[in-house]
Amino acid sequence: MTNEDLANVIFPNVSSDTSIYEKKYPERNLKEGAIVTRFAPSPTGFVHMGSLRTAFVSQFVSKNSGGVFYLRIEDTDGKRSIENGIEGIIKDLNDFDITIDEGALSETKSIGNYGPYIQSERKSIYQAYAKKLIEEGLAYPCFCTEEEIDSIREKQEHKKTRIGYYGAWTKCRDLSNEERIERIKNGEKYIIRLKSPGNFERKVVLNDLVRGKIEMPENDLDVVLIKSDGLPLYHFAHVIDDHLMRTTHVLRGDEWISSYPIHTQLFKLLRFEEPKYGHLGVVMKVDETGARRKLSKRKDPEAAVSYYHEKGIPIDAVKLYLLTIANSNFESWLSSNPDKSYNEFKFDFKKMSESGSLFDVEKLLNISKNYISKLTAEEVYANLEKFTAIYDKDFNKLIKNYKDYTTNILNIERVQKKPRKDYASYSDIKNHIWYMYDELFKPDKEDYDFQNIKDFNEINKILNLYLNKYYDFNDDKDTWFNKIKDMCDELGYASNMKDYKENPSNYKGNITDITTVIRVSLTTKAMTPDLYEIMKLLGPEKVSERFLIFNVD
RNA sequence: GGCCCAUUGGUGAAAUGGUUAACACAUAGCCCUCUCAAGGCUACAUUCAUGGGUUCAAAUCCCAUAUGGGUCACCA
Q1: Which 301-360 positions of A have CB less than 7 A from strand B?
Q2: CATH number at residue A230
Q3: pTM confidence score
Q4: Which 3 state secondary structure label does DSSP give A334?
Q5: Which nucleotide, over all strands, has the C1' atom closest to the CA of A73?
Q6: Which site among A35, A302, A322, A449 is 20 to 30 Å from A19 CA-CA?
Q7: Confidence band (pLDDT; 50, 70, 90) for A130?
């Protein structure tokens, strides 16, 4: 019996003529140097920060080069797939503002001419290539049970040799086609394995985009190509898909490095041109015990993309952060090109870190703070509106009622060469500006944080004097400030800090004490942005109203 | 255990055989200042996991050791 007979018994309804696929998915007609990348997650839960980094970098380099970035869903393992997994992935990508040129858009929809982009829908394609390999004697059915595989491994462990299904350890590799066909016809369960021609003593070389040359032994494992449910395993599916989808660059986590020998062998056996590979280091974190470990989906909330969305950290800030940890020269590029979009940055694989980098939330927040400080008040308002519409509906209503007022608040100390930087996220903003709204300004007396002056008689005296004699809403900033100084002199407080520092005993206090009284009575807080601006925005009615709260006593 | 990878300050890192080890975050101090947020200045690795070697010269090359990570599934 021939290999063809065997192949026909195994895949009676599949043609091994793979040239139809080669024709259906022709080489892409892209300009020289265009890069085709993909993001290929399995639908097992939310998108992890590490995967997101890979997706973002993949998209970035393809965009950089005028290429294509597509999404492929790797759902060949039914056991691990979760319900609505695909939707979850697409939502995470959306939230993160990563758009695809091609690929799955939902469970049922997709765009692009190289689909289907969901692996479980590509069964017949994989089987066609598997059939071809069987015909060529490069693959065979294996009838080993789980117990048999276990016992092989135990023997190998005992003898301290290499573990795996290979060479002389195999049971089914050299069965006759007669026996194979008979056992299949008897209903025995089987899988399809590669009949690896590899030799462990020989080396293969991976020219990795980020790590350079890596030498490894050739693969001699008879790896599983097709499972008993007829679906392929990652290795096989990846090789076929990345070829048929005409991928030029495969970017993936470095946990895949060690299976490269399998992949390169498969590419060769299938006579496919191999894409370039870039293996990215894992994203780590330091846990409670001080140990470094991989950022974990289960344990670390910050591993989820949705975390940043909920926190109101601007997506662009996260991208900026991702770029700074992805390419070591990005940060200096950005500081010398502050007005350019990060999209203009030329990504360089050689500048990627080879080791796993620590995920540093502090640094992210710092980047976010700088990012927000560069936006216009209108932009901040729009983003804040979007954020609160989902996560703080009451505040959303409030800012919409006072849209111009809110924008003006957000504009305080923004239009200047060195803008204020106090919002690291949109969820932060309310904590900084709530007191500007009467609806939220309902303090108890204990909420006021007057620093040095504790005596309410003195506080009332200062406020009344200021209100009656010095405060004029129409004053410009200099006049406003000079008047406060005048009041300091009248009340025996130092209006000039230098004088005060030289002779503190000559004064009851200094100008800071006075401005603090005004500031705190208006906001309850000892630390706020520019007082003049705040008073200007509150307006004369609110100012006097808030001053007079203390007159009750 | 086999194979592969990594190891520069609290953190991310630069430097790819040449002389004082960039820069950023964090931390501390000072200055500026109506308080903050910033900003400016200064400090923070006698040393690049350890031990050998090559060299006039090593964080950079080689070897060994240690530590950490990955992988060795009908998971991806």
Answers
A1: 324-325, 328-329, 331-332, 335, 350-351, 353-358, 360
A2: 3.40.50.620
A3: 0.85
A4: helix
A5: B76
A6: A35
A7: very high
